[in-house]
Each structure stands twice: as C-alpha cells, then as structure tokens.
Design brief:
Elements lengths: L6 H21 L7 E6 L2 E6 L2 H17 L16 H9 L7 E3 L2 E7 L5 E7 L1 H18 L4 H19 L5 H19 L10 H9 L16
Antiparallel strand pairs: 1-2, 3-4, 4-5
Helix pairs in contact: 4-6, 5-6
Length: 224
Amino acid sequence: GQGSVCSPIISCIYMHYVLVWWYKEIIVPKLKGYSGLVVYADDFVVCFQYKEDAVMFYELLKRRMRHFGLSLQEDKSRLIQFGRFAKENCERNGHKPETFTFLGFTHYCSCNKNGKFRVKRKTSRIKFNKKCKEVRQKIRSMRANKLKDIISKLNQILVGYYHYYGITDNGRSLSAFRYQVIRSLHYWLNKRSQKKSYTWSGFLEMIDTAYPLARPKIYVSIYG
C-alpha cells in the first residue's frame, strides 16, 4: 500500500525489470544516438540525443507499462527539448527553454560565470511552498514554548533542509526558505500576547546574536 515500508523495495524491483533491464537490453541497441537513464524509486528521467529516439522510446514505454498493469502519470510525463542546443534554439525563437522537476529540484538551462552553458537546479516551487506551510504550522503549534526550544527545533529543520537542497546553484532558494522561517517565527511570537512583543529590527538583531538560526550551506558540489 501507499506509504508502506516495503513500497520502496517493491518499486525498485519493478523498476529494475520493467524499465532498467528493458531499457539497457532492448531499447539502447535500437537508438541512433546517445541516451542516458536516471532512476530513483519510481521516478525517472531519460535523455536522448535525437528527438526521434525519444518519441520511439515514449511510445514503447507506454506499451511496456500496460503489459505489466502499470501506467505513466500523464501530467508528469512529457517530452521536452532540453540542453545547450535547446537553449540556443529557444533564444533564437524568442522564448525560454522548458524546465523539468526531478526529486524536488527544478532543472533549467543557464550559464556559468564564464558564459558557458550549464544545467542548474533550484528547489521546486511546489516543494518550497509545501515546506514553508509545514514550518508555519509547526511554529504555530510551538509558539507557547520557550524561545530557546523553538529555535533549537527550527535549527534541526533548517539543517535537514540544507542537507537535502544544499547543492550547487541553489543558494538563493536556501536563503529564501530561511527568510520565510524568520517571518513566520516573528509573526507567531507576536501572537503570544495582545501586545506586540518584537519589532522587526529588534527581532532580526535577536536572531543574529542571542538565538541564531542556522544559515544556508551548500553541502553538495556537483561540479567540484
């Protein structure tokens, strides 16, 4: 069932035979160009050098899934042009290349400091908003606790968040999340009594000195 402890194991078994083995043994020999497959549990991304290879694979994949009583989630399954040439083509046509979301990160086409093409990643907007909502609710439930206990719990949440989303090029999203935590904390602490407890400037000073909140940190360097 959904959420069962054995679900990840079952999904890995299914994905190995239904997708990974089939892709390597049956699909790759038929392709004209380069292809790559990335799988995590029941999520996957497949890259192709040529569009015709991608179209062929997509149609065969749907047939393969139906054979095992499975189906693709259509709202999350799509063919897109992505990469250096996609960026160049889209810029000539006056629009931006498409993006895709995988494992909580939105992948998009960009450039490095030297102006060369690079795939960058940022926290998915859906995941970002969901986590901000969870933290607001958590702070609300803890607002009557001692401030040092609230800060301690929030630091655990922040460090855990940084460990997952702290990858190359995602520093801005990490800072934005910390800012949302600070705003929520300021709001709910001022709700503990009828009288406003903290001004914004005084609250920020307290956060920086007496009760510091963990600052963003990049834990994974993709290109390092």
